[in-house]
Amino acid sequence: MAASTLTEVARLAGVSPATASRVLNGSARKPGPGVSERVRQAAETLGYIPNAQAQALAKSSSGLVGLIVHDIADPYFSAIARGVQEVAREQHKMVLLATTGGTPADEKEAVAAFAARRADAIVIAGSRSSRPEDQQGNADLAAELDRYCRNGGHVGVVGQAIVGAAELDGYHLVEVPNEQLAAEFAGKLAASHSGGFVIIGGPEGLITSDDRIRGFQAGLASAGRSEAEVLRASFNRAGGYEAGLVLAERIRNARNSASANEGGRPDLCIFAANDVMAIGAAAGLRSQGFRIPRDALIAGFDDIETLRDFRPALSTVRLPLEEIGRLATLSTVGSKAAAVADGKHDDGTAVTGQVTLRRSTEWTP
After folding, report:
1. The two domains 6-59 and 178-318+352-361 share their CATH topology (first three levels equal)
2. Are 128 and 159 in contact (CB under 8 A)?
3. How far is Cα 190 from Cα 269, in angstroms, rounded to an integer?
4. How far apart are CA 187 and CA 162, in angstroms?
5. What percent of the chain has pLDDT over 90?
6. Residue ranges with strand state E in the chain
7. What does R_g of the chain's alpha carbons equal in angstroms?
8. Are 76 and 45 in contact (CB under 8 A)?
9. Domain boundaries, the chain
10. Is the CATH code 3.40.50.2300 the one for domain 64-176+323-334?
11. pTM, full prediction
């Protein structure tokens, strides 16, 4: 059955379509109570469903927040999404979700789709890319965001600034100090581990991964340690697993050499640029008969919720992921003055993290 129209509602209520629209679509210009009640009763009788786009035009607000993440199945992004959802609910808004796989070209398409639906705000979470193949995608994404902000939209970005994006009134950045935290982490691990280090990182040009790798190397240098080898892999569990298989072979070869010290302190400490890679690497080692921390030490970054069930407990850098999602959303749809008054966020300031050492980097004979 065809949906009832606004014209039919107006005819049943004995008013003009413009009057019916003002009642049902939330316009600031409202007729008298008797007229409003007749229109609402007519709409209920006909089963009329208001047009969201018409309501957005009448209210100058759609009540929608667009959220763009790389992969909602990744606990890092789902935790940020919970923070976004919490603020949206407080502001009586609905969240639209787009997952992109991390390419700026796909993010640009998501921004365009949200803008076409008159989303009040857009939150973008995920690493930026400096890879040559993403150069045009970065330019297109920056241009789309520029157009959106100049038309009154607000954008909250988590992590690093959008490559090439202009500084606009509607643009807000919640920075994550990946490099500084990774350097601090390296220093603490170097203080307790006398052997070598290997870093499992994402593809070169993935800025979050590159920042963490650079910070970790700087921390090792400050501690007077040699630079770590970097194994590049997909920035996910599968990439970590493949890297774990490579490292398992190295450990096996070392065990078979004349200088091997089987049963002694592990020679290798692995730093994975995120927790899911660390979990994958541990699984790869385990599949080849090796155990953490008996045969190798391992650490991650983010402190995702999944780690509550991971054994041995993983050393990592704890980020307040839900709070990051809250801050990014508050900067766009909440009271910016209230957020600053709470001491939580002002544009351009970084959130804080905490190095957390656990069993995965604690070797005992």
Report:
1. no
2. yes
3. 9
4. 30
5. 63
6. 64-69, 94-99, 121-125, 154-159, 171-175, 196-201, 229-232, 268-272, 297-299, 316-318, 354-356
7. 26
8. no
9. 6-59, 64-176+323-334, 178-318+352-361
10. yes
11. 0.81
Which tens digit of pLDDT belongs to each residue from 99-150?
998 899 999 999 999 998 889 999 999 899 999 999 999 999 999 999 999 8
Tokens of 225: 């340690």
> Residue 313 above 90 pLDDT?
yes
Sign of CA dihedral 19, 25, 30, 31: positive
Please give the residue that has the higher pLDDT: either 1 or 325. 325
Pick the CATH number of 178-318+352-361 from 3.40.50.2300, 2.60.120.560, 3.30.390.50, 3.10.290.10: 3.40.50.2300
User: CA–CA separation, 74 vs 297, rounded Å?
Assistant: 23
pLDDT given at position 17: 78
348 contacts: CB under 8 Å, gap ≥ 6: 173, 175
Q: Collapse the DSSP code of 327 into the 3-class scheme (helix H, G, I; strand E, B; otherwise coil) and give the result.
A: helix
Please say whether the structural domain 6-59 has been given the CATH code 3.30.2290.10.
no
Instruction: Give the separation between CA 333 and CA 93, rounded to whole angstroms.
Output: 9
Residue 13, pLDDT > 80, answer no
Tokens of 219: 């921390």
